């Protein structure tokens, strides 16, 4: 992966965001020149996340643990992201604190938000490969679609698998299973 230099203003923005204490149920992320604050998700969002998480948990490699809403930080590229679900080494508990180096995450899973879909559809597609996250699974209940990005290289994902709710998603190692999407539901209007 190419080495990136973080402009001083991005480092300051990251430091400022890390000092914030958001209200209960809110998340803080940093992408480029923006601090992004988001409210907690809907019950449809949470149900879809549960359907996905249960399948990943059943295929979780030894030594990895699931974590929801964990701050993944990449100071080398000035990014702080908080995926709906990630799988990280159990050994990160030895680091203490609330942040995990993003390059330790095996996957980031996002259920696209109704209120700010561009964050998941554009911002995270841009940021996650820069942060060294090998897999990004994006579930979009607005459109009934699922996209799996893989093989980060030179700041972007080289591979993209796209399907609809009801399709089976081929999840590569270290999980290595077929994710069933039949029970995912779309947002209601």
The proportion of residues in beta strands is 25-35%
Give unreliable regions as ranges. Answer: 1-5
In CATH, what is the class? Alpha Beta
Q: Please give the radius of gyration in angstroms.
A: 16 Å
Cα distance, first to last residue? 42 Å
User: How many separate domains?
Assistant: 1
Task: Please report the number of helical segments.
Answer: 3
Within CATH, the superfamily carries the name: tt1808, chain A
Query: What structural class is derived from the secondary structure elements?
Result: alpha+beta
Largest sheet: 6 strands, mixed
Order of adjacent strands in the largest pleated sheet? 3-6-8-9-10-11
How many DSSP E strands? 13
What CATH calls the topology is: tt1808, chain A
What CATH architecture do you see?
Answer: Alpha-Beta Complex
């Amino acid at each position: 992966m190419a080495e990136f230099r973080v402009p001083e203003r991005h480092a300051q923005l990251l430091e400022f965001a890390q000092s914030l204490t958001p209200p209960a149920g809110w998340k803080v992320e940093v992408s480029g020149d923006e601090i992004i604050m988001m409210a907690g998700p809907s019950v449809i969002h949470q149900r879809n996340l549960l359907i996905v998480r249960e399948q990943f948990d059943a295929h979780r490699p030894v030594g990895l643990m699931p974590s929801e809403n964990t701050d993944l930080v990449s100071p080398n590229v000035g990014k702080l992201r908080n995926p709906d679900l990630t799988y990280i080494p159990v050994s990160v508990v030895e680091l203490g604190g609330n942040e995990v180096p993003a390059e330790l995450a095996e996957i980031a899973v996002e259920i696209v938000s109704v209120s700010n879909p561009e964050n998941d559809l554009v911002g995270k597609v841009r940021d996650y490969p820069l942060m060294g996250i090998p897999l990004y699974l994006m579930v979009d209940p607005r459109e009934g679609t699922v996209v799996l990005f893989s093989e980060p290289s030179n700041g972007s994902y080289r591979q993209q698998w796209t399907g609809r709710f009801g399709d089976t998603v081929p999840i590569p190692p270290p999980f290595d299973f077929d994710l069933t999407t039949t029970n995912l539901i779309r947002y209601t209007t």
